[in-house]
Write a structure and sequence with these properties.
Number of strands: 16
Number of domains: 2
Mean pLDDT: 96
Largest sheet: 8 strands, parallel
Structural class: alpha/beta
Distance between the termini: 56 Å
CATH superfamily of the largest domain: Queuine tRNA-ribosyltransferase-like
CATH class of the largest domain: Alpha Beta
Radius of gyration: 21 Å
Strand order of the largest sheet: 4-14-13-12-11-10-6-5
């Protein structure tokens, strides 16, 4: 690791890990959940509101920012941190997943990907070298290697071909990142493990990445339709094979139960659009499970979303008012519901960190599932 980025493992309970990331932009306590700020904003949230939930790091996206407003423009304006008024660490996804999922037309070859923008059809090319350049221009503190996210379901031969291409791109990403001068000296590059649901391919990918050497390792290609049980199976044989002294990041995951199960299996970092997207659509995550505020039963309900939550939505407003806002399409409804969900996710991470420190992970997990099975009790 470089002199400005490090990971310290502080406690373990079974496979679950409690650690601290040190970056040039501050510390991140793990397990950590990163709110998604795809286009230089966490939707419906001010940056100071995101920080107030306890979030220490957020995610931005190479694909979206290269299209609009453009990485060179962001760099000229002082970098992504200044541009969006976020002083803490930022992790940027490499753009590979969005190229596959959003672009209208795309062609993959050894060099990289050529594609048409989902915004206006403009032709672009994205290679490992260009992805590293964009992330450097943005000023990312944790840079992700450029990869191809293998689709699911997939035949093993196709999964192997895709994974091996990603490993070649990973080496080129490492070489390009290393040429980034001061940015490379101060920040970190994470490799991405691929291989779909095939154990031998996952281990082949890990071997290739560890031979190259990265400051951290991500598990990609999950939460793409395989289901929670299969995802946990993959983590059971993938996480233990990763370097013990490096952070582990499960990309694009997920529901609260996904996070708890993945932490049990040794994952340190997460991101997902679920809490923000769900909040904007009227779904809240609470200690007793999910609440759909659009349901008619909430229209006369004076209770908060979650009695144990300290966010503004729960401290200052009733379910009835939130239901009114969301049903009316009021912007405040999206803001309050999003704030609550991000607060819930950060509180969940803090609870997991404390449980690992106290060696009480099993009790924490049992209580988590018992509360969710009990459900959202409606006394009305």
């Amino acid at each position: 690791m470089n002199d400005r980025f490090s990971f310290s493992l502080m406690a373990r309970d079974g496979e679950a890990r409690r650690g601290t990331l040190r970056t040039v932009r501050g510390y991140v306590e793990t397990p950590a959940f990163m709110p998604v700020g795809t286009a230089a904003t966490v939707k419906a949230m001010m940056p100071e509101s995101v920080a107030a939930t306890g979030a220490q790091i957020i995610l931005g996206n190479t694909y979206h920012l290269m299209l609009r407003p453009g990485a060179e423009r962001v760099a000229a304006l002082g970098g992504l941190h200044k541009f969006m008024n976020w002083s803490g660490p930022i992790l940027t996804d490499s753009g590979g997943f969005q190229v596959m999922s959003l672009s209208k037309l795309r062609k993959i070859d050894e060099q990289g990907v050529t594609f048409q923008s989902h915004l206006d059809g403009t032709a672009f090319s994205l290679t490992p070298e260009r992805s590293m350049e964009i992330q450097r221009l943005l000023g990312s503190n944790i840079v992700m290697a450029f990869d191809e996210c293998t689709k699911f379901p997939v035949e093993k031969t196709e999964a192997a071909t895709s994974m091996q291409l990603s490993m070649r791109w990973a080496r080129r990403s490492r070489e390009a990142f290393n040429g980034g001068g001061d940015h490379a000296a101060q920040n970190a590059l994470f490799g991405i493990v691929q291989g779909s649901t095939f154990e031998d391919l996952r281990h082949e990918s890990i071997a290739a990445l560890t031979e190259i050497g990265f400051e951290g390792y991500a598990v990609g290609g999950l939460a793409v339709g395989e289901g929670q049980e299969t995802m946990f199976d993959v983590l059971d044989y993938t996480a233990p094979a990763l370097p013990q002294d490096r952070p582990r990041y499960l990309m694009g995951v997920g529901k609260p139960s996904d996070l708890v199960g993945a932490v049990q299996r040794g994952i340190d970092m997460f991101d997902c659009v679920l809490p923000t997207r769900s909040g904007r659509n009227g779904q809240a995550f609470t200690r007793r499970g999910t609440v759909n505020i659009n349901n008619a039963r909430h229209l006369d309900d004076p209770r908060p979303l979650d009695e144990a939550c300290g966010c503004p939505a729960c401290r200052q407003y009733s379910r009835a008012y939130l239901a009114h806002l969301v049903r009316s399409g009021e912007i405040l409804g999206a803001m309050l519901m999003t704030w609550h969900n991000l607060q819930y996710y950060q509180d969940l991470m803090a609870g997991l960190r404390g449980a690992i420190e106290r060696r009480e992970m099993a009790a924490f997990v049992a209580e988590f599932h018992a509360m969710h099975e009990q459900g959202d009790i409606d006394p009305l």
